[in-house]
Amino acid sequence: MVMLHVNQQAQKQRHVLRMAGLRPVQIWVPDTRRPNFAEECRRQCLLVSQADHVDTAIEQLMDDVLADLDGWED
Predict the structure, then answer these.
(1) pLDDT band with cut points at 50, 70 and 90 for residue 66
(2) Has residue 13 been placed in a domain?
């Protein structure tokens, strides 16, 4: 059995995925390890909650959007 170097294994896997019609995409996400992460989540949740109370049309908009998604799982 031939042992491939880690880089060769990764290249082989990327090739297999590309042949399957996929392409790599880099996604940046919030760093949950940061000390202020939970505090920032709370702050943003409060802002959204306050906006929901002020903008009563948002609930109707969300209902309309959800209704438009019917059938997407097929």
Answers:
(1) confident
(2) no
Question: How many domains are contained in the chain?
Answer: 1
Name residues whose C-beta falls within 8 Å of residue 58's C-beta, 6 or more positions apart in sequence: 51, 52
What is the reported pLDDT for 21?
A: 96
Residue 53 falls within a domain, yes or no? yes
Q: What is the pTM of this model?
A: 0.47
Q: Nearest Cα to 43, choosing from 55, 56, 27, 30?
A: 30
Per-residue CA distances from 70 to 2, 64, 74 (Å): 50, 11, 9
